[in-house]
Model the fold of this input.
Amino acid sequence: MDNKQQQVAVPKRETIEDKYKWDLTNFFTDDGAWEAQYDEVKQLLPKIDTYIGSLNHSIDSLVEFLTMREKIMIGTGQLYTYSKMKWDENTKGLKYRGLFDRAQHLSTEVETKFSFVEPEILEHFEQIESFISQSNELKKYQRYFDKIKNHRQHILSDKEEAIISEASALFQGPENIFSVLSDSDIEFPIVKDENGNERKLSHGRFIQFLESYDQRVRKDAFQAMYTTYSKYINTFATIINAHLKTDVFTARVRKYDNSLQAALKPNEIPVEVYTNLISTINESLPVLHKYLSLRKQQLKLDELHMYDLYVPMVPNVQFSISYEQACEYMEQAFRPLGNEYISIIQKAFQERWIDVYENEGKTSGAYSWGTHNTPPYILLNYQENINSVFTLAHELGHSLHSYYSKQEQPFATSEYVIFVAEVASTVNETLLFHYLFQKTEDKKLKAYLVNHYLEGFRTTIFRQTLFAEFEKVIHEALEQGDALTSEDLSEIYYKINQSFYGAVVIVDKDIALEWARIPHFYYNFYVYQYATGYSAATALARKILQDGDEAVKKYLEFLSSGSSKDPIELLKVAGIDMTSAEPIKAAIKEFDMYTDILANLLKDIENEL
Ligand SMILES: [Zn+2]
Done:
């Protein structure tokens, strides 16, 4: 945020016109209705205990139980989501914070009450499986039972499960220690900006410094960041080792082959999806190098350093886009998805699913969220710039995915899983890019858009795969028995960076320490899904634009499928096979093609000057 923006006061929520605020009356007409529902759920809770030990008694009692469970879960979800969304409107307000606290407690209570269900189903699995095959009403729970079945061999005895669940709070330790150290204890130094003003470095400002057109600023920020991390590097290494040990422990006690399989199998993702991604991207690195060479040439640098990767290649392009204009773009950009899709988008605008502008106390960022019987709402902090327009497209992707799935699926299979979660949002961003690219005449704007598009590939497909490779290597190292020192970690990390960037970029020594500040390395095999989701979405958008109706039909079927199949099968519905390298190769091809387009645009601009 620059000084000018800081001077403009953020408006109070009351001063914003209603049409720019979401209408949450679909949840509750007023807070009294919230209280009534809270009481209703509370009263149902004691009933849960009466079903313990009875799930295998008869089809009818099982149906009755699952129906009640659904009612409680939907009710609790509504209480939780509504109070959080109201609190997000103004995080300084105490009233909805209070409601949210109560909803959170209620959710935990509900979860604990239902914790007997899975062990009991497992105990009487054959009996319950035969109930499902005999009853139409139980059919919608087939996926739920299948997942338990597939997981069966990794579930331990009651006593062991109880110990693991008692201990699971300890497993959060490394992640929590990391975030306290990295977010609050670490003190960052001052960096001088382009105008010589002293500004304190922070996680949020780091990327702003790296986007500076002044290489001195980028270099100073880069060095300041890693000099700071180097002071604590042994502590970070100890934290990562503790995290890796919990992963290895979980994998061993649950009888998985290794920690990668332990992370992927519960989500029904074959390990080949992960290894395919890494090998395909490694084979495609010359395409990344071509893009980086263009970047080096365009920035007129003798040496391209690790701190030169984020600055836009086309400087001084100003887009100012009002929210109304952005909404019009959406209606145009998503035309390829057909009339029905557009009509739902219009409904989102007209029926006030979207909370558009920033106001005093409003939570930052953007999300799409709702419950089974409310619209999929969107929170934005809309600024009149190109990023906000892409964010709107992104969140509308999530919302329409939710909308279609909730429309077509019973509650049991209406929520989509993480592996496919970023597909619809990225498809929308890609369609928006193609639309804006087509309609923009100005070559500089066009080049700016293409650069923005290509950066999406670089930071999502290439960078996240680099992360995924690092995670795989360090887990394997620990599984072979050795604790990793900070030097080991830095050496492994540097080597992977060298192979990704070394052909074009000066891989500065300090980048070896970057592992220490990446939060995802303290969780578990998560980031690969950004790369796979992005690849799937790119391949899908291509199909939609090239094949038209046939591809659209399949895509909408995918959006309507929720979690009714495993994630790999779901994407096959849309014509994408993530167990093959094809979607990743298709994404790389797109990246390569637009790198050439950018090179030509930049040449034309240069010649016109
Ligand atoms: Zn998203």
